[in-house]
Specification:
The complex is a heterodimer of chains A (99) and B (486). Chain A is mainly β. In chain A, the strands form two sheets. A five-stranded mixed β-sheet of chain A has the order 2-1-7-5-6, with no helix packed on it. Chain A has a two-stranded antiparallel sheet with strand order 3-4. Chain A is globular. By secondary structure, chain B is an alpha/beta fold. Chain B has 18 helices and eight strands. In chain B, helix 2 packs across helix 11. The longest helix of chain B is centred in the middle third of the chain and has 22 residues. Chain B starts with 11 loop residues before the first strand and ends in an 18-residue tail after the last helix. The chains are: A mainly beta (99), B alpha/beta (486). At the A-B interface, strand 6 of A face helix 9, helix 11 and helix 12 of B. Chain B: Keywords: Cytoplasm, tRNA processing. Chain B: Belongs to the CTU2/NCS2 family. Chain B: Pathway: tRNA modification; 5-methoxycarbonylmethyl-2-thiouridine-tRNA biosynthesis.
């Protein structure tokens, strides 16, 4: 199931992605649906240009980065366990001073 | 599902588990701002208030809340005259002129849309500030404004049958429209003198002479405050609104303790900061967590411009401020009430009312941060303990540079002291404990802006004069003390 996602980065997080705020990505096909955990791994491997520790820490995002899925707090959607649907919109906003 | 209206679907969890729907969240957000201003009655109708906007989410949100509050037609709308100031710090953080111009242009388009008068100030302008900026002005009213005078001022403006003829509303509206006309015509008013590459170089040299990122951030913060204060004074603003959010202030509280600013915690993190006397700094966003602000900005399209600063992409351990931020933020993810607990604690700190006559105490204020000097050497104080251990840990034979700042030894101008050690020592006596630590991290004190150095010189000579009256002449039998020629 091909997932077309739109990603948006704000609050300084875009600095780690070459200062590009909007990204449209197509995730590679796989049998199980993609969840947020796998998405983060994928982003770390394929999109992050530098300093991965400023975006991802361990399994999850660095504390201080707000994640919205379809304009809703990801805490309401199950955080890392949320299964991505086609055409979802994921937003990462850094609330930290240093971006 | 929403805790407030109980019917709509929730979109956001704030605090420790309250889920709000979109509409209720918006109301809650807007209400908090007005409640914060209403609870602390320090902004009087008709006052000129300077909004310090850095482009970041909190200050952009503050700007939009001010617009929201001023635009209502209800009789309880906010009534003050806003202006905006933006400080371009690209010179210190190493941005190119191109990047800086781009950022300024982006922000200018945001400011123009508000129709408020705005000022774009470059950090390089700190090099040409007058030394009067470091003096605490007297407050506009003799004693702190009481609740009843505030209420009277506001009642005056609510249109009633009696007040209709006076139309005090009109004066506020006239002022506002007059100002907006000004901003249309002389939009570049805030950009005073164009900055030259030499200025930028001098600024870079200043920041390069500071060794640690902690001290750099502290110095940057101090210079920023001076610039804002100067703009407020010259343009007639009596209040300054800063966009510090709850999370930011919690981090600031803890890192200030680590920086040695414990004595001024209340003024640094409280709602109102009266240290400058004539201009009061208020922090209306102090009840909003970063999450709420970020979410609101995203949902309701509040424009904000991210400008990389000195500390962007810095490591967690780079400076005290960074470390504290990482500590608090990490703790917050596992214990969502961390920030609010720190906030509640800080609310309990109150600024003591300043003594009746603040003008006489000029020399008792720190040169840089204008807080009360907390370094009187009392017996058994913690400060004395640090001094003693400092002296003990320095090698013997460094007689000149050790010890406190009593300038009497050096005032006869003997060439024995090396000049930088002498000026470090002399400057230290005018600073509070944490500003001393910042200065200690600087390798070249002469890179400091001229206004700081000349104000330091002025205070030193003032101190000398005050002391010299009491100095007895050499001859013991001379009963009348003569003024020592210095």
């Amino acid at each position: 199931m091909v997932s077309l996602l739109s990603l948006y980065l704000g609050g300084g997080a875009e600095l780690l992605f070459g200062s590009v705020k909007e990204h449209h990505v197509t995730l590679p096909n796989q049998s199980e649906p993609w969840d947020m955990k796998q998405l983060l791994v994928w982003i770390r491997g394929n999109m992050l240009k530098e300093r991965p520790e400023l975006f991802v820490q361990g399994d999850t995002v660095r504390p201080g980065i707000l994640v919205l899925i379809n304009d809703a707090d990801w805490e309401l959607m199950g955080e890392l366990e949320y299964e991505l649907q086609d055409k979802d919109n994921v937003v990462f906003i850094s609330t930290l001073h240093g971006g | 599902k929403c805790v407030k209206c109980k019917e709509n679907t929730t979109v956001l969890i704030i605090r420790a588990g309250d889920a709000f729907c979109r509409g209720c969240f918006k109301e809650y957000f807007i209400h908090k701002f007005r409640a914060m201003l209403g609870k602390n009655r320090v902004i009087f109708p008709g006052e000129k208030v300077l909004l310090a906007v850095s482009g970041g989410p909190a200050s952009s949100s503050m700007l939009s809340q001010v617009q929201e509050g001023l635009s209502r037609d209800a009789p309880k709308k906010l009534r003050f005259v806003p202006g905006i100031i933006y400080i371009d710090e690209g010179g210190a953080s190493g941005q190119s002129m191109e990047e800086r111009k781009r950022a300024v242009a982006q922000l200018e388009s945001v400011f123009r849309a508000t129709n408020y008068h705005y000022h774009i100030v470059h950090l390089e302008q700190v090099l040409s500030l007058p030394s009067s900026v470091l003096e605490a002005g007297s407050s506009a009213t003799g004693k702190p404004p009481t609740g009843s005078s505030y209420k009277a001022a506001v009642d005056h403006l609510i249109p009633t049958r009696k007040n209709q003829n006076q139309h005090p509303d009109l004066s506020v509206e006239n002022a506002q429209s007059h100002l907006s006309n000004l901003s249309m015509q002389e939009v570049q008013n805030g950009v005073t003198s164009p900055i030259t590459p030499e200025h930028t170089q001098a600024l870079k040299r200043l920041f390069a002479s500071v060794r640690t990122p902690t001290a750099k951030e502290d110095l940057l913060h101090t210079l920023r405050q001076h610039l804002i204060l100067h703009t407020a004074r010259t343009q007639g603003y009596t209040k300054v609104m800063m966009g510090d959010s709850c999370s930011r202030l919690a981090i600031k509280l803890l890192s200030n303790i680590s920086l040695g600013r414990g004595a001024s915690l209340a003024t640094d993190t409280g709602f109102s900061d009266p240290r400058h006397g004539d201009v009061v700094i208020v922090r209306p966003m102090r009840d909003y967590s970063s999450k709420e602000i970020a979410y609101y900005n995203r949902m309701f399209d509040i424009p904000s411009v991210f400008i990389p600063g000195l500390d962007s992409k810095a490591q967690d351990k780079a400076s005290i401020q960074r470390l504290t931020e990482s500590f608090v933020t990490k703790l917050q993810t596992d214990f969502p009430s961390t920030v609010s607990t720190i906030y509640r604690t800080s609310e309990k700190l109150h600024t003591a009312c300043p003594p009746q006559n603040t003008n006489t105490q000029l020399s008792a204020k720190c040169l840089l941060c204008v807080c009360a000097l907390d370094t009187k050497l009392e017996e058994f104080s913690a400060y004395q303990a640090t001094l003693i251990s400092e002296q003990l840990s320095q090698r013997r034979g460094q007689g000149h540079s050790s010890g406190g700042g009593q300038s009497q030894g050096c005032e006869t101008g003997d060439g024995g002291c090396c000049s930088s050690a002498k000026s470090t020592v002399d400057l230290k006596s005018l600073l509070c404990y944490s500003c001393r630590l910042t200065i200690k991290d600087m390798t070249a004190l002469d890179a400091l802006p001229q206004y700081i150095l000349s104000e330091a010189e002025r205070r030193r000579s003032q101190m000398r004069e005050e002391i010299s009256e009491f100095l007895l002449d050499e001859e013991e039998d001379e009963a009348i003390p003569r003024v020592n020629g210095s």
